[in-house]
Design brief:
51% helix, 11 helices, 251 residues, 8 strands, 2 domains, elongated, Rossmann fold
Length: 251
């Protein structure tokens, strides 16, 4: 059975590697969502090399986001589309039987959005990693900052691995801490009935609101998916974009 972990990355690389170590499940694929920020890119290279050495059978790759952070609704929807496409790709292209989301990395909105998307797309678990002493982790990151930069700038994987192994004990303490130093928290999620979700999405996508009940229309209106013009409801621009992500994750 193949299991994939999809995780946004912020400025704390250990939340990804600690999860892989602590989840006590055989992981086959790790997909890291990175912003266009050099510190984040450096962190990704550290994660990649650390996993390459400790878990050489794991397929790890990066999905880049076209911005350095999510500041607007439009960017958040773009991030949601990329995350949806990644979930679909892990299932349909890489044939993963299960998909976990680790939302511990990234800014707050980059954690909330995958949590909601995970429910809509029926992932097999949404998790958060809570470090018990963040100050110690930050100190370790700071002490290794120059070496992390060297790994990032190294010309090939052979050189990157060599730099990592120069301080392997310190890097392993950072990336793979004792399980007593952190907690993996499962985020409560409830699966949406696929047929009901399909009904809502199809109605909004086709603008055929007549098939919906008054209560359903009111709920969609309250959530910004519909606009109201006089006594008539129409699909909002936000609603159209949101539904298009769910209908066509490859877009």
């Amino acid at each position: 059975m193949k299991t994939s972990v999809i995780a946004p990355l912020g400025l704390s690389p250990p939340v990804i590697t600690a999860f892989i170590e602590g989840i006590a499940e055989p992981i086959s694929d790790v997909v890291v969502l990175t912003t266009d920020n050099e510190e984040v890119k450096r962190g990704y290279e550290l994660v990649r090399i650390g996993l390459k050495i400790k878990y050489p059978r794991i397929r790890i790759h990066e999905v880049g986001l076209p911005f350095d952070d999510v500041y607007t609704t439009e960017q958040n929807l773009q991030f949601m589309a990329i995350a949806a496409r990644t979930i679909k790709e892990e299932r349909e292209v890489h044939k993963c039987d299960r998909v976990f989301l680790n939302i511990a990395g990234g800014r707050k909105n980059m954690c909330i959005t995958p949590s909601l998307l995970g429910q809509l797309m029926g992932v097999d678990g949404v998790f958060h990693v809570v470090t018990k002493d963040v100050a110690i982790v930050n100190q370790m990151l700071e002490s290794l900052r120059e070496d992390i930069r060297r790994i990032y700038e190294a010309k090939d994987d052979e050189e990157k691995v060599k730099i990592y192994k120069e301080k392997e004990r310190y890097f392993n303490s950072l990336l793979f801490p004792a399980k007593s130093e952190y907690e993996i928290v499962r985020i409560p999620t409830l699966p949406y009935p696929a047929d009901y979700l399909a009904k809502l999405v199809t109605a909004v996508h086709s603008s055929n609101l007549d098939v919906l009940s008054t209560e359903e229309i009111e709920l969609l209106y309250r959530h910004g998916i519909l606009d109201k013009i006089g006594y008539r409801y129409v699909v909002s621009e936000y609603g159209r974009t949101l539904v298009s992500i769910l209908v066509r994750p490859w877009g």
